[in-house]
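Subject: design request, 65 residues
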């Protein structure tokens, strides 16, 4: 299974991959570990629309932590 191509540079992933809330919500499993599912990531969509990464505390669902 291919992972999201932005995983290595994703501020959310870097800052929150060990956070119990993130793990509990399953965001990394739902959005980061599968390239096809990552297309639904609000962070990825933000980057495409604005040409820059979203704030690090923006979740893959678009909510702010």
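Subject: RE: design request

Done. Sequence follows.
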């Amino acid at each position: 299974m291919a992972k999201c191509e932005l995983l290595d540079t994703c501020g959310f992933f870097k800052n929150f991959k060990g956070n119990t809330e993130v793990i509990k919500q399953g965001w990394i499993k739902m959005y980061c570990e599968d390239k096809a599912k990552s297309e639904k990531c609000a962070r990825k969509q933000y980057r495409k629309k604005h040409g820059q990464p979203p704030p690090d505390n923006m979740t893959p669902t678009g909510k702010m932590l």
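The two ends are 28 Å apart (CA to CA).
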